[in-house]
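2024-03-11 09:14:02 INFO receiving multi-entity request
2024-03-11 09:14:02 INFO entity count = two
2024-03-11 09:14:03 INFO echoing inputs for audit
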Amino acid sequence: MEVINRYIAIKTHVDGAPEESDFELKTSPIALSLAPASNEVIVKNLYVSIDPYQINRMKSYSSSQKNSEFAVGIVPGEAIDTYGVGKVVASGNPEFEKGDIVGGLVSWGEYSVIKPGGMLNKLNPMGFPLSYHVGVLAFSGLTAYAGFFEICKPKKGEKVFVSAASGSVGNLVGQYAKLFGCYVVGCAGSQDKVAFLKEKLGFDDAFNYKEAKDLKSTLKRYFPDGIDIYFDNVGGEMQEAAVDNMNINGRVAVCGVISEYTDDEKRAAPSMMDVIYKRIKIQGFLAGDYLNKFADFFTTTCDHLRTGDIKPLEDISEGVESIPSAFISLFRGQNVGKKMVKIAEE
Amino acid sequence: MEVINRYIAIKTHVDGAPEESDFELKTSPIALSLAPASNEVIVKNLYVSIDPYQINRMKSYSSSQKNSEFAVGIVPGEAIDTYGVGKVVASGNPEFEKGDIVGGLVSWGEYSVIKPGGMLNKLNPMGFPLSYHVGVLAFSGLTAYAGFFEICKPKKGEKVFVSAASGSVGNLVGQYAKLFGCYVVGCAGSQDKVAFLKEKLGFDDAFNYKEAKDLKSTLKRYFPDGIDIYFDNVGGEMQEAAVDNMNINGRVAVCGVISEYTDDEKRAAPSMMDVIYKRIKIQGFLAGDYLNKFADFFTTTCDHLRTGDIKPLEDISEGVESIPSAFISLFRGQNVGKKMVKIAEE
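2024-03-11 09:21:47 INFO inference complete, emitting structure
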């Protein structure tokens, strides 16, 4: 059987903030059966992840493209790979059979063809919705877990600041930090998000950074005793203000710098005097380096989800054609929680 | 017996680059004997250390002043404490007696009175000149040793870049790194210094940063395979260029940022995109946190000095009145190696 696969591509490289006009919905016929000798797997995509870092892959040049296997440049006109969850339609690989639910590197489209060696794993939903396996139980969750526990190495009672705290990773960092026994303040870009962080997710406090006249004094008000850990999802001035308010032996986990993604000139220039005298560590990381922690992370997080101690925060658009607007929304601060697109019903 | 103690003070706070007119030579009578009940120690200073970080203590305000016990603000008109080596003239403290050679927190002057609890230790010169105990065998050495081994955690064969490589700490970092089996390139501010690093100290290569048109491409030329470790003594653009040329899992030890000391606006703004994708760690440190490594450092370094594997690099001025010009020379790049002032013959 042959169907028409619809997928999203970029028309040309995207070097600034992304716009609808940068994307196109393309179609190509795809056979839903395999030649007898094939060892590929055909997956019908169900949920695909929408992540800010993809913008770095869309640029005509970014040093990131050569430094991570997950950040290789995207070719205009071609399918864009992404983490996602789907169902096996046909398999030439003995590890998979038709009907298996899988998670792996699929594409921003309706179907994906996974070649041997491609990232693909059978998925046991563990009784949770499949969407959890794209967000809270997948890379967003692992990023928060590894970044907080492995990079920040928290101690109970420490003061934690999280930027983009209602984002896919930030909301989980805050929840893990609260469960661990830290004092947690988040910032976000609207009063609704701020209320949500405080009332639903149990943050000790939160503020709308767009209403802050001066970030340094704002942070001083929220952290009269200083910041021990800053989980940085935004970079820029917020990082500078956090370093300014940091305590001795403070740690900055640099997870994302969305302010730099679309404007390379907009850099953080934290005081290196503070870095020295306060013995601050600023460390970048990628979740992909912590796959050895995945089992710990997964078991712990499943337990917290069952008890209700962690609340998954999802922002789901529907249909392959909504991928561009879903992606663009990330750069406009319009998402609340993990952004993903539901491509099809199981 | 009473003598006139001559010492150096600042006239007012110093908020830019230091000038001769910022300092004054003061005098005050000092008794070289103690009252019977006194538990103080009077030290005749022999060598005093001249360090760039003192500028941060001279400012009217610097956040550094509240974050380290060694960085408390200096009061205009009063004696300025510093590390140094001297000889006990009189002691009310049973741990010391007249004639003891000691190292500790003395002052930029001819005599120091050390109160109980003040930093003071008996010194065994181990057959080395006393000046070694102000530089290579004291805090400059410990800073290089702890910064390189504890913060950078080097592996054999790694590529190491050191800025201000002919400075008190930089020259030792390069020498330790070479002995450890790393590839080492240093930068300095004159052709003479560059030649010295290559010919006398065994650096694999070195360059004059003042002749570099573009720091990023210069570093790319010296490190075609990238930088694994950057030992940062200067901050600013050099740090940005080093991060740009850094390999995955690169480490930046931030030891000093002399470019920021006299101009707070002159900040380093390394690409946080690089920090993330290359998983770079930027870490500030103070040698005072590594006193538990002092015995290791001291024994190892004494051995290297005896075999000639480490060459001490000293820049010694003479006489208390030369302290201001010695200090100012640090900010003009005029020193080669550890700057100190010899106050008196033993």
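2024-03-11 09:21:48 INFO post-check: Chain A is about 25% helix and 25% strand.
2024-03-11 09:21:48 INFO post-check: The first helix of chain A runs from residue 54 to 58.
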